[in-house]
Design a protein that fits this description.
Order of helices and strands: EHHEEEHEEEHEEHE
Low-confidence stretches: none
Number of helices: 5
Helix content: 10-25%
Amino acid sequence: MHLTQLTLDSRHTAIRRDLGNAYDMHRTLARAFATQPDAPPERFLWRLDALDALTGRAVVLIQSNGPGVWNHLPTPSAQVREKSFDPASLAQLGQRCQFRLLANPTVSRQGKRYGVWEETAQRDWLVRQLSQAGATLHDVECTRNERWVLRKPGQAEPIVLCAIGFEGVLTVDKPDALQHALRNGIGRGKSFGLGLLSLAPLRDW
């Protein structure tokens, strides 16, 4: 797997537009993973990790199977940092890890999906998702609680999502399941910068 950290300057019009609508950001990032101009991009996950309103500095993390071609982006040049990693080295049986996740907690009622806005219900959703992903939650802090209204070209009704940031500690119970979650993300809204699970092993605990 491959990680890329893009540092962008939101004072540029094109970048400011993308930061204002996750659909536009995904469409822009996808250009780095399309082998041909009209070809669908390879699958990738991404997350806006930081946005400083005073300096205009924005940090976007992208996870993909391989490196992107960043000079394909129609935005001004960004600072690019890249590295490869093996999910198996992070998701080892019994390993305790710090994690970061920006997710879209939802519930289904009568065939419709609704965002989960209550804090206890958000935590319960996270516990269930991590359990399915082969991990046990030990500690968590809610770092972001946002309501996103996204407009897609040609679509009259906007898309409304809840975006909840979680940071905490988990233990790996089922390495294969957690590796799958690392590769494929957690929850819905992945095209909009949600679902990317980041892990860092706690070596001493």
